[in-house]
């Protein structure tokens, strides 16, 4: 379940919301010929502000049964509480997903988990809206502990206050770390909610496949501009088909000996560089400790803002010349700076109190 098949990602597609029976059927008929694995539609919609379309509720569930009967597509909806789980199962929904606003709340997740006890329906768990891997894993564990065996994670990006081209910042390092900790858990990219627009959908989907994700969840609507929710990010079945045809699916590995040998050599060089980096960083910390001792003797504070700005400015231009982005240089040096301060602090706390002046 949720894994790549014949070198093709597991595909979940459908409208953001089930608006009318006609709309649901039209999208499903548009998607069925494209080989989609699972038809999505929101029946209960968690909306940020009141007044927006909050879904048709249980009335829409028979429409999904009709989708399955007429097109053969299996269906999935979002559930946010025990009653919704009960209603969805009663109407034969095949897969349930937990939305980003529910994953943040352990009470909600536990209520859903309790409702799932004894019913082995597949469940997908979206990342929480905030970039907190522990919370995401906690939700996954609660569903596992309810006895659900077919589980997948959906990466839909994270709320960020800072403006960016994305609606939800991807922070790829979080799903990558999830994969490291739970290597057997299928991982699906919801490129629609990450992007919040149509233009970047292909780029984000490709990035996910390059990272060896198992599948994609994408919002598709026959008349996207007129959608009752998330109009800006939905695409027609035709455009979705185009997107699929442009995706390059890569294999995780190969048994080609020449390729493997070449990769092995380069990896060895990378390991050597990493070790060199660690040695350099350790040397840098020894200097920081020297400075710490000296500042302590002279009763000088650790942090001098002007010095830190000076380091950053210089590093931005030096980094640029070496093909390193400003964003990376800032993240890297901030981490180094933090560690440096910690070393200075430990020296200042342990060294004998010097005579000031
Ligand atoms: C959705 O899939 O339409 C949805 C509401 O998603 P999320 O929980 O990721 O915001
Ligand atoms: Mn949506």
Q: What structural class do helix, strand and pairing data support?
A: alpha/beta
Strand arrangement within the widest β-sheet reads 1-2-3-4-5-6-7-8
Query: What compounds sit in this structure?
Result: phosphoenolpyruvate, manganese (II) ion
- Rg value: 25 Å
Summarize the amount of helix as a percent range: 40-55%
**What is the number of helices?**
13
Q: What is the succession of H and E elements?
A: EHEHEHEHHEHEHEHHEHHHH
Report the portion of residues in β strands.
5-15%
Distance between the termini: 70 Å
Spans of at least 5 consecutive residues whose pLDDT stays below 50 are none
Shape: elongated
Total number of β-strand segments? Answer: 8
Q: Main sheet, how many strands, which sense, barrel?
A: 8 strands, parallel, barrel
Give the rounded overall mean pLDDT. 93
Blueprint (SSEs and pairs):
Elements: E1 10-14, H1 21-31, E2 38-40, H2 61-71, E3 74-78, H3 82-90, E4 95-98, H4 100-103, H5 106-116, E5 123-126, H6 133-145, E6 151-155, H7 173-181, E7 187-190, H8 191-195, H9 201-210, E8 215-219, H10 237-246, H11 257-298, H12 305-321, H13 326-350
Parallel strand pairs: 1-2, 1-8, 2-3, 3-4, 4-5, 5-6, 6-7, 7-8
Helix pairs in contact: 1-2, 3-5, 5-6, 11-13, 12-13
The structure holds phosphoenolpyruvate and manganese (II) ion (MN).
Manganese (II) ion is lined by residues 16, 219, 229-230.
Give a structural overview.
By secondary structure, the chain is an alpha/beta fold. Helix content is 50%, strand content 10%. It has helices at 21-31, 61-71, 82-90, 100-103, 106-116, 133-145, 173-181, 191-195, 201-210, 237-246, 257-298, 305-321, 326-350; strands at residues 10-14, 38-40, 74-78, 95-98, 123-126, 151-155, 187-190, 215-219. Strands 1-2-3-4-5-6-7-8 form an eight-stranded parallel beta barrel, surrounded by four helices. The protein is elongated, with a radius of gyration of 25 Å. The mean pLDDT is 93. Bound molecules: phosphoenolpyruvate and manganese (II) ion. Phosphoenolpyruvate is lined by residues 16, 42, 46, 99-101, 126, 156, 190, 193.
